Amino acid sequence: MNYPACEKKDFQTEYFGHKVEDPYRWLTDNHDPEVLAWVKAENACTDEWFEKEKLEAKIQALKKGKRRPLYSAISKWRDGFLAAKREDGYPVVVKLSQDMQAEEIIAERGTLPEYTPYSATACPKEQKYLALYGLKDEAARPSVLIIDCEKREIVETIKGTFNYAWSASDLVLYYSETVSDAKTQESYSRMCAYHADTGVTECVFEDREYSVLGDVHVASDEHTILFEYWSDYSHSRYFSYDEMTKEVRSINGDHAAEMRYIDTKAGEHYFIMKEDAPFGKLIAIAQGKSLQDARVLREEGEEVLDSGFMLEGSVYLMSLKAACARLICLQEEEQAVQEREVKLPEEIGTLTVCGSAGGKKYFQYQSFVMPPVLLEFDGKTMKTVLKSSDVSHPDVITEQLYAKSAKDGREIPYFVVRRKDLKPEECKAVWMYAYGGYNFSEVPAYEMPCTGLKVAEWAEDKGIYILASIRGGNEFGSQWHEEGMGLLKKNCYYDMIGIAEQMIEEGWARKGEVIVTGASNGGLMVSALVTMRPDLFGCVIGSVPHTDMLQFAEDDRGPMYITEYGNPRESEEMFKYLLSYSPYHNVKQIAYPWIYLQTGECDNNVPPYHGKKFAARLQELNQSDAPILLRVLKDGSHDRGAGEVFWRTTAEMQLFADEYIAYRENER
């Protein structure tokens, strides 16, 4: 292919006496006219590669198969509900009727200039005040707009906050403000309060210890607020704040622990604790007491405790058993704890909290073969409120298998979705997906994240889909996360290699023909894989990827990410380790497979230079005829765009894989 010319400029960065060449550093400035011209040429090159008729046909097919969007962020408002949904890639905030059958749009893209709303909540004490959470174009961090619905005006803009919550008993919105400095690598959070009745904002509590983020939790006792400071993406320090006395007390402020707050009941704070129990145990800490005084209500079991909530006086634990959702109810009765499991629609599936209102909890449930449904739970009955689709896939099966990681031999679980009668020689292609980072669990879903591929339909068409539960996530407890971070990050990639090699050994795929996809941290994963083992994969699709694991620490959110990856300036050992797998720095003058990279100019999470620099170096050095495509979305954020751009982007990803399969068949 004839790619747009990309000038190499002399630029070096020194780490511990080691000079690192960075000839495409100039692509960092996405406002530079030279960069804009190159991006325009790259997009034109990608446009030209796709046949217009095929792309349009794919877009129309995706639109035809569109499911009904379901709701999230559900909360009570007036005579109905506030909720959020995502349609055609656009987030939309709506008001729902009491039966959830009618909706009215409250805010969407275009309602406010250069602002994308994500969700909204109303002040419980005065419903005329709404907090609208969203992102201003090109802003590094989200913001909250306080709206007076009676006056129909924005009365306050709270910039740069990730987490907030209304007081249950006062006209106050509590929010966290994280201050970070990419140069000094400092990051700390403070808790603030906005008083809607007076318009006054005050700092309630500031803690100068390192934290990547802050969070706010409002207890159901209606006067206790918990301030949470994330030391990294698994360990936190908690402080309780009494709205009546204004007193702040440390729960474990002197020592960050892997614990997650559930709620406060009868003078006790309930937490899931993993500090000495990797799968998690349930503890309670009396108000005014510290972590050392905790009592254990449920010891560590076989499933990973992920989160919890309280409903009708009972504690509910959301857990993962072999990466599949479970819901457990605990009731304390006369010094004993009674336990029962709440039945969910399927054995292999995912349960996600979608909000609370009127003494009820709302969830979304889905699996590889079951389209998402919205569930309502009152503590007794779990009922389906809305379905996204009525389709079923009786000929598709899901298996959970294990493969040995390519480096240390660790047993790595993975899901295989295929036709029940599929034979190895009939398999169209093996398509792998994983995330592997930030203590985040990648669990069964009806659609593959980022590509929009309907997993069961792919399987019906004689494809095999693999969701790999690689290390770095929380699918199998805190140790699973720790084995895939920092100086152990490459474990994640060896896990994927081990699974791919097993599929090849069993005859489901040939070497060099596996398709692999990932986004964000998963985009880093696939970018690392293609530089580590270009011989293993035939088609690679990376969305909004990290690719420069030295420069990333200098990004706006760099101080928030170094707890996961490590800081290249922390030590020579860490620098060399990051350099050893940094995709951008490990591109060589060899043959690479088909690669499609996508990024967004407005990405406030992973700056677009990551995808641009990686694509430029691959296009420069690749020795095969395989296409190396870069798609840069002008208005895209940490996503696949919205509206027609969303449809085109997901269609391109799927069509790219289709074209690879067709090419491979012709070459055989």
Describe the structure.
The chain has 668 residues and is of the alpha+beta class. Among the domains are: 12-65 and 412-667, Rossmann fold (3-Layer(aba) Sandwich); 302-387. It contains ten helices and 38 strands. The strands form nine sheets. The chain has an eight-stranded mixed beta sheet, with helices on both faces. Strand 28 and strand 29 (373-377) form a beta hairpin. The relative contact order is 0.10.
Helix percentage range: 10-25%
The quaternary state of the protein chains shown equals single chain
CATH superfamily of the domain at 12-65 and 412-667, called what? Alpha/Beta hydrolase fold, catalytic domain
Alpha-beta content class: alpha+beta
| Alpha carbon gap, first and last residue | 22 Å
Q: Radius of gyration, Cα only, in angstroms?
A: 25 Å
In the CATH hierarchy, the third-tier topology of the domain at 12-65 and 412-667 is known as Rossmann fold
Coarse shape:
globular
Query: What characterizes the major β-sheet?
Result: 8 strands, mixed
Strand order of the largest sheet: 31-32-34-33-35-36-37-38
